[in-house]
Amino acid sequence: MTETSTIQTSTRLTLSHNMQARSDLPQISHLEKHGYLFGKKLTASLSPFLHGVVYDKLAMNWGQVRYDSADIQEFLHLVQDPSFYGASVTMPNKVAIIPYLDQLTPEATAIGACNTIYLKTDESGRRLLCGANTDTIGVRDSFTQNLTEAQLQSTIYGRPGLIIGGGGAARSAIYALRTWLGTTDIYLVNRDAREVQAVIDDLRLSGFGTEGIMHVSSVEQAESLAEPGAAVGCVPDFPPKTEEEHVARQITEVFLAKTDKGTILEMCYNPSPYTELGALAERAGWKVILGTEALIYQGLEQDRYWTGYQLEQLPVQDVKKAIAAHLMSLSKI
Predict the structure, then answer these.
(1) Domain-by-domain residue ranges, the chain?
(2) Among candidates 169, 168, 188, which has minimal Cα distance to 255?
(3) Cα–Cα distance between 270 and 333 in angstroms, integer?
(4) What pLDDT is attached to residue 4?
(5) Can you give the pLDDT at residue 11?
(6) Which of 183, 248, 254, 314 could bond to 177 as cystine, CB 3.0-4.6 Å?
(7) Please, what is the Cα angle at 307 between 117 and 265, to 5 degrees?
(8) Per-residue pLDDT at 261
């Protein structure tokens, strides 16, 4: 055994021993390599399940384990384990983790949030913690993998985009529509004008640019604008209750009713991917892409970082079938 491998084995044994003494920490001793889902309120997350399907189909003794915590320092200690391969990062840690990372991808920098940690090695052999935001890829690939090139050319590229919502998912959608899907103006529809302004301000500060990104705040304004081609729903599946929510829904309906139809990615999939917004769009003649597609493609992009396999080498159809079956089983409970 080389000196390096001896040190790595010793490090892992020490870390594993410390973890075994802490019943609140995830157990990893049965895995050849392990990753974390790092955040709070993780019980309902499908991330470990999705990655488990990938590793099972690739015959890899890898696994992602839940680490329900906002303790950045303890997380940074855990990732020193030589068998650590990377992490999915969720709220409230997506922004808080950034100062502790060695490198960020362009989309993580632009959005100001990291949902993926992967490893690189510098010239000296030091292991680097790198951050990415694969939510953007989830949006992009939901369109590119479900539409033909001809459909993208005729209905998406060169037309405005529509985003319903104003949170983190909206930021990822803006990046994907503007960077990869060739949209022109981007319309933001949301119940809270302050949230929309915060999105625009954050993108401006990051250097991404905000030209053509506008808050559509009235039915009259929506009626005056050109038809969007790509739309992304980034709100929970709740019926509108407040006056502001009703106005936002009316604005959305105006866009959906325009003559030239497009494709909407409805990001909400929990508890069901079949939402009221998706049904409205379908009745209006739009093609609807379920939110499970974004979940799947952002997760597969994470596995591309972690395993080195390209998308075409990953078990995409197996993951889709497993996620659909899992959600179906939940709907029967």
Answers:
(1) 3-133, 137-291
(2) 188
(3) 14
(4) 46
(5) 47
(6) 183
(7) 65
(8) 96
What does the H/E/C string look like for the chain?
CCHHHHHHHHHHHHHHHHHHCCCCCCCCCCCCEEEEEEECCCCCCCHHHHHHHHHHHCCCCEEEEEEECCCHHHHHHHCCCCCEEEEEECCCHHHHCHHHCCEECHHHHHHCCCCEEEEEECCCCCEEEEEECCHHHHHHHHHHCCCCHHHHHHHCCCCCEEEECCCHHHHHHHHHHHHCCCCCCEEEECCCHHHHHHHHHHHHHHCCCCCCEEECCCHHHHHHCCCCCEEEECCCCCCCCCHHHHHHHHHHHHHHHCCCCCEEEECCCCCCCCCHHHHHHHHCCCEEEEHHHHHHHHHHHHHHHHHCCCHHHCCHHHHHHHHHHHHHHHHCC
Q: What is the pLDDT of residue 105?
A: 96
Residue pointed to by tokens 């906002």: 70
Quick one: fold of 137-291? Rossmann fold (3.40.50)
* pLDDT the model gives residue 24: 65
> Which phi and psi angles does 39 have, rounded to 5°?
170, -165
Dihedral of CA atoms 74, 76, 79, 81 in degrees, nearest 10, equals: -70
Could you check whether 3-133 and 137-291 share the same CATH topology?
yes
Sites in the chain below the pLDDT cut of 70: 1-24, 330-333
Angle between helices 291-307 and 47-57 (to 10 degrees): 50
Q: How many Å apart are CA 169 and CA 153, to the nearest integer?
A: 24
The CATH topology of domain 3-133 is Rossmann fold (3.40.50)
Distance, in Å, from the CA atom of 38 to the CA atom of 89, rounded to the nearest integer, reads 5
